[in-house]
Each structure stands twice: as structure tokens, then as C-alpha cells.
Amino acid sequence: MSELKSLLKKTLHEEIPLTREICISVITASPQLIELSAPLAPNINHKCTAFGGSLYAVAVLAGWSMVFARLHAAGLHAHIVIQDAQIEYLLPVVETINARCELVSNVEFDRCLKLFSRKGRGRIALDVQIVTQQGLAVRFCGNYVIHV
Question: What domains can you pick out in the chain, each with its CATH number?
């Protein structure tokens, strides 16, 4: 297991106890790609599909984890919070929840880190997708703030 992957798993489970309750696993952790998963059983609703709150939580955490990975790669420590978000539930999820946050360009993150170094605060918008065998189930966009 990569250093970042094990550090992220440890941080999530120690600092965000909900991640243990919903059984979050770190599948991939790099400064370009975060993949998290959570089994259906502890996240199920009365319709035998994934609970919307669990889908939201896994999506938020995938974005949070991307910020964590980027800060780690830059050798920086900061508080990470979600400022606001939009989510679209497109399909029911009837299998393991798999969330993916991929950074295709470094430009926005570099801008965020530059602002953080100047003002002690930066902001970045990140997209997360939850994809199932049936297709794109959840589209999420969250604004994350880093601060000292």
C-alpha cells in the first residue's frame, strides 16, 4: 500500500469517525486520482438502495481526500472544510458505492495553493462521480476551503 493511501485511510478513520461507520475504503490515492468505496450493507435505505446521505458523504469525502492528497504532495498542512456543494442523484445505487475524484489539470489547484500561501486561505471546486454498472449515478461538485 502506498504511503499516501495508508496515511489517507488512517486520517479518515481517526479524524472523521463516520468513515469507519460507513466502512469507507481507500482504493486509489494519488495527487491526480482519488477513489473511495463503501459497501452497500451499512449504507442501505428502506428501498434496498444506497441511502442518499451516504452517497453524499462518500462524494464529499472523495473531494476532501483529493485536497488532502494535494496538500500532502506539496508538503503543506492545513484544515480542510467543505464550504458548499451541489449533488445530482441520477440513478439508484444497488451495489458498492464507488466515488472517483480526478484532477485533470493542476492550474486551479496551483491557484488555490498560491492564495493559501499568501493569505492563509484557499478555495477549490472539485467534481466527484459515483458510477455503477448501470452508468453515472451521482454527480457532485463541492467547494473546499483550506485554511491555517
Answer: 3-147 (3.10.129.10)
